[in-house]
Specification:
CATH superfamily of the largest domain: FAD/NAD(P)-binding domain
Radius of gyration: 21 Å
CATH topology of the largest domain: FAD/NAD(P)-binding domain
Bound molecules: flavin-adenine dinucleotide
Oligomer: single chain
Distance between the termini: 59 Å
Number of domains: 2
Strand order of the largest sheet: 6-3-2-10-22
Number of strands: 22
Structural class: alpha/beta
Helix content: 25-40%
């Protein structure tokens, strides 16, 4: 039976409460816009609250390249306790290690303090358009269907749902129809990190190290492992082609994987997060296929825990501490914007006058089984992301930010990590406010880039002065 459509009005509506949507909504609300953040799930924060570290917030040289809303959230985490912070993996990245449990509270505090209206458990299912502009989004939840009107919309749905409904073009997969794997992250507590780090020093052939000229490419693997041990944090990348994992695969003790990535999440609980499970080449916008992947991923996680307890020193007395609340999705649709970020922009660390945020993560494309592409950004530097990549092509008032960004597949392999996704979201949030207060409200193409850039810098974004 048809339900009556309720109506609500906002200045800015953000669809998707992952890291990009959170940054967008906080940025818009802090600048005075009546802002609604909608998410289909039960909590805001996305991958900030699943056990992953924030990547792409520092370049390989260790310079911070993302600030703004990310800094505000990290500061809130520090106040609440348990923050670990930047850790060098002596391979090619600086992780910013966080406790996903504390992070749930930190994100919520920052979102509420900014004055964002949050609507959880709600799915954006349709849009209304007029003369090339979106005038409203239809949101459905248990209570009702609502036409949410706004002047500017920001699609941070990861899959570009709003852009697709508005008729935007999407870039999908590659010529081979491949998608980066789905992954179920899990956590293990009671880890003896001294034994684990000693094992890495004794058997450096198992770990990936020294892949960046800024991270030990002039050192032997053992010397890199010693640096890891000196640092004292269990940020370890057991590589899929190393003997430990290869023997495990041959013995049928683990599924083929490119990595057992160990990320510290809590020193109080001696807890790490593990990034290893994978089912590749699933289109995650196919909800049945996504749902069906759950069982296989959980089986892999459970098998890997036994393997780690049996085969990796430091895990003998450790125990399973939890699963991510959702399957991790690396890749679905990339929406075409006015500009498409390219592999060359990323690889060459390209700087530009219209940059609204930075990225520095290597081109990181996980594949089936033990395969993974890892190409560092040149010279340990960072690249600028232009304003035009935030604007959905052919639509007047729709920004795209985060995983559904406008980028070719290789550039996406870099900019998909949380640092740059949050920088994009933050810029879209402020851009929306500037557009609304202009003489042509809602026409986001008319936002003066210099005003946007100075506004972003004023709220702590890092746009200049780094490699
Ligand atoms: C396994 C894995 C490991 C990774 N490792 C790292 C890492 O170590 N460090 C790092 O920085 N990054 C890592 N990444 C990448 C990074 O975490 C993500 O690309 C990034 O978090 C994407 O953020 P987002 O906000 O764009 O999207 P998402 O986090 O996907 O958020 C989108 C949100 O939109 C909501 N949504 C979708 N459609 C609708 C709709 N129609 N209506 C309402 N709500 C909707 C969803 O519920 C979701 O909450 C990893 C990713 C994965 C999957």
């Amino acid at each position: 039976m048809a339900q009556k459509l309720h109506e609500e009005n906002y200045d800015v509506v953000v669809v998707g409460g992952g890291c990009a949507g959170v940054a967008a909504a906080v940025s818009a609300a802090k600048n005075g816009a009546k802002t609604l953040l909608i998410d289909a799930g039960s909590m805001v924060g996305g991958e900030l609250i699943t056990g992953l570290p924030v990547d792409g917030a520092l370049n390989a040289r260790g310079e911070w390249i993302v600030g703004g809303v990310l800094t505000e959230i990290l500061d809130e985490h520090k106040k609440l306790g348990g923050y670990i912070g930047p850790v060098n993996d002596w391979r090619l990245i600086w992780y910013v290690c966080i406790d996903p449990e504390t992070m749930k509270i930190a994100v919520s505090n920052v979102v509420r303090r900014a004055g964002v209206n949050v609507l959880m458990y709600s799915f954006a299912e349709d849009i209304v358009m007029q003369n090339g502009s979106i005038t409203g989004i239809v949101v459905v939840n248990k209570q009702q269907r609502t036409l949410v009107r706004a002047k500017v919309f920001i699609d941070c749905s990861g899959d570009g749902d709003i852009a697709m409904l508005a008729g935007a073009q999407a870039m999908i997969s590659n010529d081979l129809g491949e998608y980066q794997p789905l992954t179920m992250l899990f956590r293990i507590s009671g880890v003896n990190k001294t034994r684990l780090l000693d094992f890495c020093v004794d058997h450096p052939e198992n770990i990936a190290v020294g892949e960046s000229e800024w991270m030990g490419s002039d050192l032997t693997p053992r010397q890199c492992a010693e640096k890891l041990r000196e640092q004292g944090e269990a940020a370890i990348f057991f590589k899929g082609n190393g003997p430990l994992i290869q023997d495990g695969i041959k013995a049928g003790d683990i599924s083929p994987t490119a990595l057992i990535g160990i990320i510290p999440v809590s020193n109080e609980r001696n807890e790490v997060s593990v990034n290893t499970t994978r089912i590749a080449n699933v289109d995650a916008t196919d909800t049945k296929a996504l749902s069906n992947a759950f069982g296989g991923l959980v089986d892999q996680a459970w098998q890997c825990i036994s393997f780690m307890k049996k085969r990796i020193p430091g895990f003998e007395n450790a125990h399973f501490a939890g699963l991510s609340h959702r399957i991790g999705i690396r890749e679905t649709r990339r929406i075409c914007g006015d500009y498409i970020l390219t592999r060359d922009d990323v690889f060459n660390a390209k700087k530009r006058d219209d940059g609204i945020g930075k990225g520095s993560h290597h081109i990181d494309i996980h594949q089936d089984g033990i395969m993974q592409v890892r190409i560092p950004v040149q010279n340990g530097g960072s690249y600028d992301m232009p304003y035009q990549m935030l604007i959905a092509k052919g639509i007047n008032n729709l920004y795209i930010a985060g995983r559904c960004m406008s980028a070719d597949r290789e550039a996406h392999g870099s900019a998909r990590v949380m640092g740059p996704c949050m920088a994009q979201g933050e810029a879209a949030g402020l851009g929306a406010v500037l557009s609304i207060s202009s003489s042509d409200p809602g026409n986001i193409r008319n936002v003066p880039i210099s005003t946007l850039r100075s506004g972003l810098k004023a709220q702590g974004a890092i746009l200049d002065g780094t490699h």
